[in-house]
Amino acid sequence: MKTTLIGSGNIAWHLGKALQRAGHEIVAVYSLTAAHREELAEVLPPAKAVDSLDLRATGAELFVIAVPDAAIASVAATVQVPNGAMIVHTSGSQPLAVLQGIAGARPGVFYPLQTFSKFKPVDFSTIPILLEAEDEQTLQALQEVASTISKEVHQVDSHKRKQLHLAAVFACNFTNHLLGISRQLLQEAALPDTLLQPLIQETIAKAMQSHPFQVQTGPAVRHDQNVIEEHLRLLQDQPLYQQVYQLLTQSIKDHSPKQ
Amino acid sequence: MKTTLIGSGNIAWHLGKALQRAGHEIVAVYSLTAAHREELAEVLPPAKAVDSLDLRATGAELFVIAVPDAAIASVAATVQVPNGAMIVHTSGSQPLAVLQGIAGARPGVFYPLQTFSKFKPVDFSTIPILLEAEDEQTLQALQEVASTISKEVHQVDSHKRKQLHLAAVFACNFTNHLLGISRQLLQEAALPDTLLQPLIQETIAKAMQSHPFQVQTGPAVRHDQNVIEEHLRLLQDQPLYQQVYQLLTQSIKDHSPKQ
């Protein structure tokens, strides 16, 4: 499938490489910044760097918008693609509808459910790809492309994708923040940053194997008020962390009524 | 080192096995429940199951209390050990002082910083063991034992261990709870339980390599108010989760002032 990439960030980079490895041809790379589009086009031969969103002459059948969420609408308002071409975005939080105004295009969503770092290789085959389209034919074409790079292809509509994104905020963004608070507390106590890593890894591994609510440990689930109060005292100079501690303790307690 | 285990739960089980593998002799296992002490003694030959906390005749030089935190004080009030014997507890949240009343004993803390499941083998060599004792001689004896089973032995006093425990509550207990909320949200949306697992694993891996605050992603760090408000609407029937969302979003925003 001849493909044009719109965007040159981490998703464009990794998805472009995965598509190319699977035998698809990247014909063009668009990015606002000349250096970025040229750098990415160079690693995806025979891709050309292009500086206009009039992409009708690129010869592609699939156009992949991989730009920050906030920029998708403005790309959609400007981009021109050949009649009947597929144009997809790669966002977990944006609806399919954001692409509906593109003249002559068959809009879709092609959302790889993973976080990417520029220089860290990824095994795309295990990354879920969530698809959405307006008609069965487009969906099937996207399905064919997606299944050349991943074994985990799902059809998920915009509303469910929104619910999934919410679940991901809890599981990833919020857990990352808690790991940051924890790291800061270790530093304040002059303890090694890495001390908790084996415990964190085992905790996550357990939470994957069981329902996390069933393997909950710690003072909250034991309703151990002495320890809880001592922890709150240790946090007395950090009122926001103290609030976080109180609320999450309350939520854990509510899930595990005292015997 | 001839050792007696007090307790027959997951820590006693795994620590007993690790000590035995390293060449130490487990001479006795005490537990309130006959079936439990006999089961553990059987897998740790030549250990005998004993039913009294008068352990003066077990011939051990080291006594390891591996019982629930709330039971340590009552064990300490009852146990009898030979003059000059070392007696340690294995708890992250209890001070050394809880063992100070044991007549003739040299108290200590021998805290393996990991969560254990009964039938899951563990590689003890990577598990940090945190030690504390009242005198240098005891500390050194514990250090010698600990370094036969782990490459990560640290001396950490009671106050620092308390701060470490607090950090662990954030990094492990609270993250586990958030993973539980996320799993529940997936189930409510009729999405596969495992869909977020690659993303969670990559998020944790990144948080280990960098300071988590520096690799924070998601709507909060972008101050993306549209997405945040939509998520709060999705949670309108779950007021406690809505509060958790709001507070963690606030905490992330406070760490990443708007540009």
Automatic annotation (TrEMBL), chains A, B:
The segment(s) forming the Putative oxidoreductase/dehydrogenase Rossmann-like domain are: 3-103
Q: Where is the DUF2520 domain?
A: 127-252
> Which is an annotated Pfam family here?
Rossmann-like
PANTHER family found in the cross-reference section: CONSERVED HYPOTHETICAL ALANINE AND LEUCINE RICH PROTEIN
Would you tell me the protein name for this molecule?
A: Putative short-subunit dehydrogenase-like oxidoreductase (DUF2520 family)
